[in-house]
Fold each of these.
Amino acid sequence: MNAIEFNKLTKFYGKVKGCEDIDFQVKEGEIFGFIGPNGAGKSTTIRTMLSLIYPTSGSVTIFGKDAIKYGSEVRKDIGYLPSEIFYYDRMKVIDLLKYSASFYDHDCTNRIKELSEIMELDLNRKIQDLSYGNKKKVGIVQGLLHSPKLIILDEPTSGLDPLMQQKFFNLIVEENKKGATVLFSSHILSEVQQLCNRVAIIKDGSIVSIQDVKALSKDSYKKFTIHGKDLNHGKFDIEGVSELKATDSKVTFFFKGDVNEIVSIISNLKLKDILIEEPTLEEIFMHYYE
């Protein structure tokens, strides 16, 4: 059974396209990635599927029910963490979470305590005294406190330090093992590769590809930046290298292939510094979809 089914979902703001003909399915029990550059239409798609804004055309079903017609009903089974979080500043964290829990028909007290301990969240502080990262933790606890069947995460890790990000990832994996379906929206490819089974890639409001994460990882590029003296950039003009840019002291390029070939070249150079990183999604789009 599919937890989510998008049926040519389209949202225009006047003449401006938010998303158009979004058409894919998320299987029940799956961790599904939804990735694209900032401004690609991820948040618009999510807000429309949650009927926080209404579609221009098309539809979404969640657990077999129309997400617009039965919005208030299906949202009881959804935990949603938006990309931007705004709260009542003068409320204490515990009061805000209790208020959120009051919308559900079961006692969430123990769950709030458990999640807050995992995320190292101080329940007695006021919202206005929290850093952006701690406000994000409040959003995570708020989204999970009712043990939802469907978890929708829109850029969930912004503001979290690396250690807390890993705790959050572990938490999501545990929720998934208990049976929760997860839609994970991000512009950070490595996050999606770590968590997800499949991904839909959105660009300029339209789905450009739906892929298995293993296939995406296999085809991914690495970005090299090399600093040194008298660098012979001609040595890097090999198969798999693209976007080669060079001066006497710096060489940058993208590489797809056996990384040992690059290591062999580098080993004969006098380097001051080297940086190997994942390209941004914008850079990956440039290679995959030009």
Amino acid sequence: MKYLSTRGQSPAQNFQQVLLTGLAPDGGLYVPDKLPQFSVKQIRDLKGLSYPDLAMVIITPFIDGEIEEKELGRIIKSSYANFNHPKVAPLSQLGENEWILELYHGPTLAFKDFALQVLGRLLEYILAKQNKRVVVLGATSGDTGSAALEGCRHSDHVDIFILHPHQRVSDVQRKQMTTVSDDNVFNLAVEGSFDDCQRIVKAAFADQSFLPEDRQLVAVNSINWARIMMQIVYYFSAALELGGPDKNVSFSVPTGNFGDIYAGYLAKRMGLPVDRLVVATNTNDILHRFISKNEYSTTDLSHTCSPSMDILISSNFERYLFDLFKRDGAALADFMSRFSREALSVSESQWRELKSFFDSASVDDELTCKTIAQVYSDHGVLLDPHTAVGVRAARECLGKKMGNERAAVITLATADPAKFGEAIAKAGLKTPALPSHIQDLFEREERYTVIPNSLDVVTDFIQRNARVSG
């Protein structure tokens, strides 16, 4: 299998090259040249597999023999061995045909662990074989950072630098990053938004001349294809548990950067019987406005109680647009170049195609807190604010379908509510205790550097702090 750039100006790459590259040289994102297809019978035969064994079946075609099966199996099993639930991604029921997919049982209590535990181990395996050292650079709106650090902190071949927006993540999210004390870990608090952090990361990937000749940048954000690949698995897992492929399911996904729901879109295209995909946003609603009104334009950033979705520019949406533009890289590049200057729309036929896959809703902070309180009162289930956005969006878009026994609706629960105590308190509920393995989090010493919103400052910091190879 080969991987293509969405901008169409970079040569095709294999899996290992894409893993170690992240952003394509032409500024595009890598996507597979074709998708593996699963028949109804093949999907039915997956029932009863453990989560690691299911992951092996789903991702093996994307790796295409570049990692031997025994090694890949070891990497997958060890990645999920430290999750604190035997099912890894269990489902819990709220109401009739309304479900929550619990994606927060990993070491950092968020769905990012599903991909980044694997990504860290894949990197270590490949870099050790090549005797190579790299600089991992990522931006986080809250959860990616801690999951990436947990996945890479023990690597002898990686220095990892994570940018987060200063004072715009929750206290628990910040502490989970800044209390990691390993010598190869660096946290940078950028005086700006997540979009500023993401812009700096993309610019650094575009021009890596600040690095020594024997070093390169590797992405841990969802611009790295491996992140998307691993997230496809839990869509299959959830659907199988609720009767798939003989019953259709719908998914509601809290999203800011479009990576998590893009994985669901790929699962559907691979053959999984998915009815609807709901894009659930907070008041930073660029994706909702595009899906509901065919209006693709930026607005001012709002700071919300669901900070991981406080994003204006959804990087992974470009991967979907590549398909919408019939894989015409030049047309997509032109579209993206105009995005910063003007409000955009697509043709009527393209918009109808978009809406054939996606519904959407935008949920403000007041309604988010009301949903947290209501779900707890009705079902005794405590939701984090991002998951509450997903539940509310599902009810708005698919409420009538929840009474149809063939249309179960699953909301992706993206984080443990303990990470967002302030939002839980705003909902009028008691702040949840931290899990036992991070009970002392607020007693641990923090280590991070506050820096201005500047590419030059970031690249200079990396120059001065990356360890010498060898």
